[in-house]
Amino acid sequence: MDLINSLLNFVVPPASLLMLAFTWPTLFFITSCEWLYNTYFNSENMEDKVVLITGASSGIGEQIAYEYAKRGANLVLVARREHRLRGISENARRLGAPSVLIMAADVVKEEECRRFVNETINYYGRVDHLVNTVSLGHTFYFEEATDSSVFPILMDINFWGNVYPTYVALPYLRESNGRIIVNASVENWLPLPRMSLYSAAKSALINFYETLRFEVKNEVGITVATHGWIGTEMTRGKFMVEEGAEMQWKEEREVHVSGGPVEEFAKQIVSGACRGDPYVKYPSWYDIFFLYRVFAPKVLDWTFRFLLTNGGARRTTSFIGTGRPLLETSSPRRSALLEGSSPRRLPQGPLTFSPAYQQQQKSE
């Protein structure tokens, strides 16, 4: 058996690459024809259908709500910031949504997920699309985090914040032959520094939905949307934590990253979901790195080490959220950069950490 495996290890990878190279033109032609057919002749009509969107108070969730509104869908918008949802609901109505419900809820709590799903069913009698866009990122190195209470928060929001709404809504999605749309990220398989916990949570999320896809078969569709860098609040340093308070990690990246427009990604997600696409990728050229990871992992590793090296330069980020002191700043503008926001939004007074960290400080 060991001899057979050794032989297959030697033969299968190059044979697969050769087969892929020869069949790629045919596969591309078939995929293009399928895309054209589903776009112009088989796209789902969302008029008067019901779309439930979690994490709808900003960023990708907000823009997805607008895209569904343009298609005439009834919307149920869920987030913790109810005051933000009110303005978004008005915008959605102006764009064409016949009806919009807003609900303040915490998606990491199963009972609250049951509440907003049941209220949706009681009001509309159905749910056709469930869109999970809740996400929480971070920009610290793992060894910098001295307050481990943030670890379960990151996992809860990025994993359970998607699983619980799916678990509760799945029976109703079966009845309507509906669809689940998941907001993932390329970090689920393309690791980047300072995003260890986020990447782990997204990887778990993708594997959960890939398994669920086989379990529900054709009764419920699943569209997994993966993106590179998107210019949302998540990458600008503003996150929501317990009790609805805002926490600023106040991390400034050493590597300059330019994010793609949220509006374009949201448009592709909704279009792909209506076509019945299993995957939506923005931008799609990220996929080439997956081949390198499988067939030439050292090349990928060397490339990222070269691109992300700082040449021994002095670290320029603050350590807020990791329990370490702020760096000295020489100007209000420099302080604003560390805050990840404009100068007029700088917080006044002492910084607020998690309850666990505050208790630890008191005990010391």
Which helices and strands occur, and which strands form pairs?
Blueprint: H1 2-40, E1 50-54, H2 59-70, E2 74-79, H3 82-95, E3 100-104, H4 110-124, E4 129-132, H5 150-175, E5 179-183, H6 196-216, E6 221-227, H7 233-236, E7 238-240, E8 246-248, H8 262-275, E9 279-282, H9 288-295, H10 297-308, H11 332-339, H12 355-363
Parallel strand pairs: 1-2, 1-4, 2-3, 4-5, 5-6, 6-9
Antiparallel strand pairs: 7-8
List its salient traits.
alpha/beta, 12% strand, 12 helices, seven-stranded parallel beta sheet, single chain, 364 residues
Summarize the structure.
InterPro entries: NAD(P)-bd_dom_sf, Sc_DH/Rdtase_CS, SDR_fam. The chain contains twelve helices and nine strands.
So what's the overall shape?
A: globular
Number of distinct helices: 12
Which residues sit in consecutive blocks of at least 5 with pLDDT less than 50?
A: 231-259, 311-354
Strand order of the largest sheet: 3-2-1-4-5-6-9
Q: In whole angstroms, how far apart are the ends?
A: 59 Å
What portion of residues is helical? 40-55%
Please tell me about this protein's structure.
- There is one protein chain.
- The protein has 364 residues and is of the alpha/beta class.
- Helices cover 50% and strands 12% of the residues.
- The protein contains 12 helices and 9 strands.
- The chain has helices at residues 2-40, 59-70, 82-95, 110-124, 150-175, 196-216, 233-236, 262-275, 288-295, 297-308, 332-339, 355-363; strands at 50-54, 74-79, 100-104, 129-132, 179-183, 221-227, 238-240, 246-248, 279-282.
- A 7-stranded parallel β-sheet has the order 3-2-1-4-5-6-9, with helices on both faces. Strands 7-8 form a two-stranded antiparallel ribbon.
- Helix 2 (59-70) links the parallel strand 1 and strand 2 (74-79).
- Helix 2 (59-70) crosses helix 8 (262-275), helix 5 (150-175) runs parallel beside helix 6 and helix 9 (288-295) packs across helix 10 (297-308).
- The longest helix has 39 residues, at 2-40.
- The chain is globular, with a radius of gyration of 22 Å.
- It starts with a helix and ends with a helix.
- It holds the Pfam family adh_short.
- Belongs to the short-chain dehydrogenases/reductases (SDR) family.
- This is 11-beta-hydroxysteroid dehydrogenase-like 5.
